[in-house]
Amino acid sequence: MEQKEDSASRENEQLKAQMPQVSEEASYNNNQLEFSCSHICSFSNLEYSISDSAERSKSRVKLIGLIIFYSVVMVVEIVGGMKANSLAVLTDAAHMLTDIAGSSISLFAVWVAGWASTPRQSFGFGRLEVMGVLLSVQLIWLICGILIYEAVDRILHKNAKVNGKLMFLIALFGFLVNLLMIFWLGHDHTHHSHSHESHETCNSGEHDHEMEELDVMGVEDTIGLVSPSPLNVKILNINIQGAYLHVMTDIIQSVGVMISGLIVWVKPEWLVVDLLCTLVFSIAALATTLPMLKKVFCILMERAPDEIDIALLENGLKSIEGLHDVHDLHVWAITSGKFVLACHIVIGPGASQNEMLSKVRDYCERSFKIHHVTIQIDRQVH
Amino acid sequence: MDNSRFSYGKAQNASFHHYQKLDSESRSPRSINGDFSFGGDTDRRFAYSRQPSFHQPPQEPQTPVSIKDSTKPFLSRTSSSVDIPLNLYSYDKIENFADESKELDEKLSILSFILFIFKSARSGNKQLRKLFVLISLNVAYSSAELCIGLFSGRVGLVSDAFHLTFGCGLLTFSLFAMVTSRRKPDRCYTYGYKRLEVLSAFTNALFLLFLSFSLAVEALHAFIQDESEHKHYLIVSAVTNLLVNLIGVWFFRNYARINLVYRNAEDMNYHSVCLHVLADSIRSAGLILASWLLALGVRNAEVLCLGLVSFTVFMLVIPLFKATGGILLQMAPPSMPSSALSKCWRQVSTREEISEVSQARFWELVPGHVIGSISLQVKKGIEDRPVLQYVHNLYHELGVQDLTVQVDYS
Q1: Contact B9 A202 (CB under 8 A)
Q2: Last residue of a domain, one of B291, B310, B327
Q3: Residues B196 and B303 in one domain
Q4: Residue range of the domain that includes B378
Q5: Which residues, other chains included, contact B353 with Cβ-Cβ below 8 Å and sequence gap of 6+?
Q6: Quick check: B361 and A123 CB within 8 A?
Q7: Domain for residue B170, yes or no?
Q8: In a domain, B266, yes or no
Q9: Of the candidates A152, A253, B136, B230, which lies 20 to 30 Å from A58 by C-alpha distance?
Q10: Is B359–A354 a contact, with Cβ atoms under 8 angstroms apart?
Q11: Can you tell me whether residue B21 is helix, strand or coil?
């Protein structure tokens, strides 16, 4: 174990000497190098870890802003609710509390993911982000369940007077708050689009013949190119996606409560509408969490990521000259955006091993942004 | 690129059939050695006693029928990683794979899903059938409770029925995991589907944690409100619930322990199902005890009982939660102490041909299946084959089944 630390510190010193400017992120991430550094491509890995930590601090800023804003709104609601002695406002304040809890979980996960890898946790702590998102999604489900339970309760205890006007106003306020948060989080729709076009890649694999035509074209594309278009899209930090999902479900539910509040305000007898609306909108909100759950599921199952076209990867690898065959190819994601590849390759008797290794590694990094590659060379035995 | 179609199909087989073979091998020794995991009748307590924790019995490769050369052990880890016999994979595997994926597409409709469950329940192993019986019992009971609650207008019964339905859903997910995890690895799930069992165990553990938390909240609520509503009908439902869950505990009695050594993926799943049923029965028992104590006139009985139950369920589930969480987080395998790993590291790096060892990472796909990758720096001009053999042997003895070794020449 001491030798590992020695070699890591040697590498650290080497790289510190090579980088003239020492930005704060670089020094913060020097212990990341223990995990991602190799003698052959030291620079590209350092770049990757710097951009990685820059992205993480951006996410951190966004999440902290979210938490602060929600806390302020919650305090306002608590004070207002106690003054007006309204249970509905206090319930909404409790709702805000769960929002804060969800965002804190995301923030914690983002912070933890930056920790250096340890011998027990050799891939670093990136996976914790995925678990954090799982937890947030479950909080969302919990909130939906509680809302449905409350709606059922309101129906069954018909003697309780439902104040439609108050419901509407509170829901409107919540709606506006959450709308503001969407702009703060700065969501762009790119991660939807590329997940749409690439979710076909794994499922269509069994139509071997059709894939073959596609692959021939794909291979010709990738020879000597920069990178295929689906991967130019920036993959958002999964925790920001989770926080965005939280805000989105809140908006959907606010809309539902607004509608039912409006109807009860206008026609106080139609209480069933309240229950119906709540049910419909809660189910809609739950449905929006399903793609995120699917993504989390795929990552936890060590599935080949949707963003990477396995057939393209394999054919591209085989098209490298000197490389005869690829087998035991495993690609999986530590967290959304961080990919790991392990494979065995068979090279011809004349090729140089180091050259083949660097070619394969370059190809994986440039075309598919896979930064952690382990390749075992089996020379063809003839 | 003329024979690209040919080589593409072959290599596609090669990439994931490595794991198919490993899957079928790992299944056959168990049936030969006497059904430790599947038979519910054998007493598993003896299976766990006094095993050195890091010693994984090396997977004895069984020679499948399709191999012509039966003298060499097929895919023993020492030789397979270096010399790959290239002409070993037959073409009929492509059709198998296509069939299975077509099956998956068909399964997407709910009706075919239910039919699929029934079909597999009939053909499955003992534990699967037991789980199926348990789930059907639970479904019958919860739907009866729901109907009675709705017709008589008692909210307590309805909420209890919802809680039960949620638990049923989780058990169904465990069943689904048991069935699906037997599928062969394909191009997307390159490591196979066994992780699904770990996921279902994790989900069950999460549910139990949530249950413990909600019971604590209920205890707090009862403490603050200080009113003890005594509902008679709830006791009947609690007793029936207890009976149903005790049947479940009896089915899975071999797994009724808190700390378990997991030898394979199914162990985790069965353990989680057993804990689920056990926790539910403890909860019902707690409710019955609380009503009895209230009838006796003990004050704050509800708070005490609920608090006790919540604490018990929490303590029950924490080891399972930690174990499944560790696997999902890709921690180093708990069965390999870090002293053993560092000893291997030292042994590798003190070899004279190897100048440096880096990026040694090990993780468990499912309990019992350790995967690793390691990167070596070797002095120029050294033959890589003996080094590869040595490293593979060394880690195979430790229990790492799949190791990818990268050799860089400095």
Answers
A1: no
A2: B327
A3: yes
A4: 336-407
A5: B378, B379, B382, B387
A6: yes
A7: yes
A8: yes
A9: A253
A10: no
A11: helix
> Which among A208, A342, A346 is the nearest to B404, CB-wise?
A342
A101-129, pLDDT tens digit by residue? 988 988 998 888 888 888 888 888 889 98
CA-nearest residue to A343 within chain B is: B404
Within an 8 Å CB–CB cutoff, is residue A35 touching chain B?
Answer: yes
Q: How many whole angstroms separate alpha carbon B339 and alpha carbon A33? A: 24
Look up tokens 């419901």; give the residue. A167
Which of B 232-261 lie inside 8 A of A, CB atoms? none
Half-sphere CA count of B35, side-chain side, radius 13 A: 8
User: Domain boundary at B294, B327, B360, which?
Assistant: B327
Read off the pTM. 0.74
CB–CB of A116/A124 below 8 Å? yes
B388·A39 Cβ contact <8 A: no
Is the domain of B159 the same as that of B297? yes
What are the residues facing B370 on neighbouring strands?
B364, B400
* Chain A contact present for B349, CB below 8 A: yes
Interchain CB contact of B377 with A (< 8 Å) = yes
DSSP B260: -
Mean predicted confidence (pLDDT) in B302-313 = 92
Do B248 and B163 fall into the same domain? yes
pLDDT value at position B76?
A: 42
Q: Mutate one of A149, A328, A358 to test the B interface: name it (highest B CB count within 10 A).
A: A328
Same domain, B261 and B294: yes
Look at chain B and report how many structural domains it folds into: 2
DSSP state for residue A371 in the 8-state scheme = E
Displacement of CA B152 from its chain's centroid (Å): 41
d(CA B121, CA B137): 14
Given a cut of 70, whether residue B74 has pLDDT beyond it is: no
* Distance between B363 CA and the closest CA of chain A, angstroms: 8
B12/A7 Cβ within 8 A: no
Chain B residues in contact with A318 by the CB 8 A cut-off are 7, 11
pLDDT score of B312 more than 90: yes
Contact B345 A318 (CB under 8 A): no
Q: Mark yes or no for CB contact B329/A120 under 8 Å.
A: no
B31: enclosing H helix or E strand: helix B4-32
Q: Give chain A positions within 8 Å (CB) of B345.
A: 1, 3-4
Indicate the CATH number for domain A303-382: 3.30.70.1350
- Please say whether the beta carbons of B329 and A121 come within 8 A: yes
Based on the fold, state whether residues B130 and B263 are members of the same structural domain: yes
> Mean pLDDT over residues B366-374, rounded?
90
Interchain contact, B409 vs A354, CB within 8 Å:
yes
Tokens encoding A262: 């409006």
Assess whether B299 and B365 both reside in one domain. no
Lowest mean pLDDT among A186-190, A267-271, B397-401: A186-190
Interchain proximity B84–A330, CB inside 8 Å: no
* Length of chain B measured in residues: 410
Residues B341 and B315 grouped into a single domain: no
B103 touches chain A (CB under 8 A): no
* Of the partner residues B1, B195, B331, the one whose CB lies closest to the CB of residue A120: B331
Measured between alpha carbons, how far is A243 from A168 in angstroms, rounded to an integer? 25
Q: Distance (Å, rounded) from C-alpha B395 to C-alpha B401?
A: 8
Per-domain residue ranges for chain A?
53-117+124-300, 303-382
B206 and B130: one domain? Answer: yes
In a domain, B245, yes or no: yes
Model pLDDT for residues B40-72, shown as the tens digit of each residue: 444 455 444 444 444 444 444 444 444 444 444
Q: Which residue in B86, B356, B404 is closest to A374 by CB distance? A: B404
- Cβ contact, residue pair B342, A297, below 8 Å: no
Read off the DSSP letter of residue A230: G
DSSP code of A229?
Answer: G
| B123: contact with A, CB 8 A cutoff | no
User: Higher model confidence: residue A81 or residue A104?
Assistant: A104
